[in-house]
Amino acid sequence: MSAPSPPTHSTEALSWPHCAHGADPVTDPVGCRGIHVPGHTVCLAHLNDTDRTAYLTGLAPGADIDHRGTPFTEILLDQLLTALTDLTTPHPHFGTARFERAQFSGDARFDWARFSGAARFGGARFFGVAGFGSARFSGDARFDRTQFSGVARFGGARFSRVAWFSRAQFSGDARFEETQFSSIAWFSRAQFSRVTRFEEAQFSGNAVFREAQFLASDWWGPLVCEEKVDLSGAVFGAPVTLEIAADRVSCVRTRWESTATVRVRRAEVDLGYAVWTAPVALTAHPVPFTDPGGTPVDESLLTGPDRVWVTSVQGVDAAHLVLTDTDLSDCLFSGAFHLDQLRLEGRTTLAPTPTGFHRRGIAPIHWTRRRTLAEEHHWRAQRAGQPPAPAGAVPEPRRWRTGPHHPDPARTPDPDDVAALYRQLRKAFEDGKNEPGAADFYYGECEMRRHDRTGTPKTERHLLWAYWLLSGYGLRASRALGWLAAAMLTTILLLMAFGLPRSSPKQEATGTVPAGGGTVTFIIDKQDPKNPTGDRFTSKRFDKALSVTLNSVIFRSSGQDLTTTGTYIEMTSRILEPALLTLAVLAVRGRIKR
Question: Which among 136, 225, 137, 209 is positioned nearest to 174, based on CA atoms?
Fold first, then answer.
């Protein structure tokens, strides 16, 4: 039986005694790389027929085999598989199988094969179909640096321990439908040149696709991962739809060179420093994914809450990013640019302020409810001296959330940085016609400017303090109405005490009667108002003071006679109280405007 001619290789050192069949000092000084068959000085491919038959006859199901570097034809591989077939199954049964840098020139049919020990195919080359459908790998499975020139079929395979596909090259279709990985699966730097299928694949450990390349995949998933799907540094070269149900999804520095739709369930998603040149939409999928037949995909591996929360968009160009129905409570925005063009669709959840009453010194304080950014939480927690929360701890609703770098001040954004984030995201909300959301972000921007001692001038900070105190930056109607009520009450009390005269001034007629008769001329005048004495706080005086105050709120003069002090009180009231009323009206409008 003739063996396929091995491709030309460099004269790399081999760690096993090799066949060297066909070695040529000029073209191929190494020759055949196949390891010696025990008791012989050549590999399985170059044994004579008698010795090969004797070797294969001596094998039994479950035997350990070592055919590193051996070139296999389709016929030779079938003979080996037949020798290892368990007739009770009937499928091939390997113990430890070593095929590192072996070459399979025809179709390699390992479908339904069982590997009781380690299965090592590192550096092997499959020139035809590589069939591992429904295979069972009880030990580590190593396919790192393996080259699949034809279709690679792993559908229904079961990997009980670590599966290594790092730097593997899939030149044909890569099919992993319904494959189960019970431990970590490594696909780092793997290259998928054609269709890639992971429909209903199940990962009980991490699924690592760091720096993998998906050059033509148009659909990826749906897959289920109990831990993390790591797509950090991966490249998607064609329009693609990803469907992932997992505990965590890492897309740090992932590159999308065309449009993409990322549908996620139950996962914590990190988009930090991702790169895209076309629109990319991240969507929280509301119901379990389904297979092509419409059957829901099994998500029993996942026990976390049914929500999708984005933890970072740092360093990304948000101009092409769309987030739909996502939780941004812990999302870091610092370092991102074009945030004003970020699109937030559906129900977007942001971190609320702490609940209940708190004490600052001896004074109780209460935070008004609004949507905030995680960066503000981190800064306020650091400023308040809160200790870092334990890893995985649920944030306390009565406290600010501590950040991932807390309490390192060098890595926590300053108020001026957070104000810029609020400013950009406010525009994104306004462009999306979400005025209440924009109002919260305007409040946050003003808060950060008010606390910024480096970038905001002192005079401007004082104005912001007054604006905040009087009306919550024109967004807290209750605060403005409270101050209006206090101002009106103060005006009433001042008018009753000092502004209303003791009695209404009476008119006086004075004139001169000419001697000897003639025309009498009268001058009608009015007495000056007399300052009040005696009991000033009577119901009658209250009624008059209330009338003056109410007229002042709407810039009207009551026509009531006032003392000089009362005149100035009314003038002040006619300036201050209408302004407070206007702030209250604007605050209500900001909450209901669409």
Answer: 209
Beta bridge partners, 103, equal 71, 125
Whether the CB-CB separation of 587 and 477 falls below 8 Å is answered with yes
Number of H helices, E strands in the chain: 9, 43
C-alpha span between 170 and 159 (Å, rounded)? 19
Alpha-carbon span 226 to 220, nearest angstrom: 17
Residue 4 above 50 pLDDT? no
Cα–Cα distance, 369 to 494 (Å, whole number): 35
Rg (CA), the chain: 40
Report d(CA 176, CA 198) in Å as an integer: 5
Q: Quote the CA–CA distance of 251 and 258 in Å, as a whole number.
A: 15
pLDDT tens digits for range 517-548: 666 666 665 545 555 655 666 676 666 666 76
DSSP β-bridge partners for residue 71: 103
Q: What is the dihedral of CA 110, 111, 113, 119, to 10 degrees?
A: 50
CA distance 339 to 171: 39
- What is the pLDDT at residue 578? 77
- CA dist 378 and 334 (Å) reads 12
Spatial distance between the Cα atoms of 287 and 533, rounded to a whole number of angstroms: 77
State how far the alpha carbon of 332 is from the alpha carbons of 131, 255, 455, 556, 590, in Å.
44, 19, 22, 51, 26
The single-letter DSSP state of residue 133 is T
Could you tell me the two tokens for 219?
Answer: 């659909």
The tokens 């020759």 sit on which residue?
Answer: 31
| Closest by Cα among 444, 535, 441, 552 to 490 | 552
270 three-class SS: strand
Residue 594 has pLDDT above 60, yes or no: no
What length is written for the chain? Answer: 594
Note the pLDDT of residue 6.
43
CA–CA separation, 223 and 358 (whole Å): 45
Which residues, listed in sequence order, are joined to residue 359 by a DSSP beta bridge?
364
How many degrees, rounded to 5, is the angle at CA 120 between CA 141 and CA 236? 60
Q: Please say whether the beta carbons of 245 and 299 come within 8 A.
A: yes
Beta bridge partners of 522: 511
User: 282-328 pLDDT, tens per residue?
Assistant: 999 999 999 888 889 999 999 888 899 999 999 999 999 999 999 99
What is residue 574's three-state secondary structure? helix
Pairing of strands 130-131, 108-109: parallel
Mean pLDDT is lowest, of 272-276, 294-298, 317-321, 381-385, for 381-385
The Cα 436–Cα 426 span in angstroms is 10
To the nearest 5 percent, what fractions of the chain are helix, strand and coil?
25, 25, 50
Q: Closest Cα to residue 56, out of 79, 72, 23?
A: 79
CB 340 within 8 A of CB 325: no
Instruction: Let me know the angle formed at the C-alpha of 425 by 424 and 427, rounded to the nearest 5 degrees.
Output: 70
Sign of CA dihedral 545, 546, 551, 555: positive
Strand (E) or helix (H) holding 541: helix 539-553
